[in-house]
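pls ignore typos typing on phone
D-glutamic acid + seq
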Amino acid sequence: MKDRLAFFDSGIGGFSVLKSICIRHSYFSAVYLADTARIPYGSKTYSEIRDIAFEISQWLSHQEISAVVVACNTTNSLALDVIKKYSSVPVFDLIGSAIDLIRESRIGVLATPSTVASKAYTNQIKSVNPYAFVREEACPEFVPFIESGQFDLLWFKNIVSNHLENLISQNIEAIILGCTHYPLIKPIFEELVPSNIRLIDPADALSKRLDSFLHSPPSEMDLENLPFDIQFMVTSDPIGFSLNTKKWLGINSKVEVVSLRSKSCVF
Ligand code: DGL
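k done
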């Protein structure tokens, strides 16, 4: 049986999660929803993100899927309970999975302002190691740069360096890439982060957690060969997004525009 996984994010960030899962699991199909009309999520309020999570969960509940992959740390940190409550299929999340990978006790987290404000990573890490030192660093500039494709500029690297310095100066031993957009520019982090500090991508743990769920056994896969049965949906700019599926995933895709339910929900 071929499982159909649903991924969602504000934009292209979830591609990093999709890629991690594709490296480990080759036999599944997918629907990928990018809420491009409302990107970035990382500067939105608690209630805005929870409303968005509710709408997305409602929309996903009308799709034929076998599981939801929360490919967005911001909704993961502020609204995982909403997504779980309104999903009729299992939900796999990044922050809960990340703890499978953490061995160090001094951890830095790079994430969006909303994720950092939620302290979701700090709380999750301390739930397994109360003595851990966790320093979270909000990086409001990263997502717009990554989405625009203009991240190879020297002054963007300077911005990245400044954020990293705030973590490195705390003698941290590992850095969690706590926004799914960030692994897309992993080479920049690898260049700027000292080699004694480990970079952690929570998606690696999430894809392992899928081992016991997916009906096909894990099989290493060539990324040149992504499964082609992926349906891409956006809330705006399908042409721009189609260019991004080609650029980041090597897939020529037909991108559909969907309207998410706009009824507001008070939690
Ligand atoms: N990629 C998402 C995350 O992991 C959302 C980023 C944004 O839209 O600000 O947080």
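Residues 9-10, 13, 39-42, 72-74, 112, 115, 143, 179-181 surround D-glutamic acid (CB under 6 Å). The mean pLDDT is 93. more later
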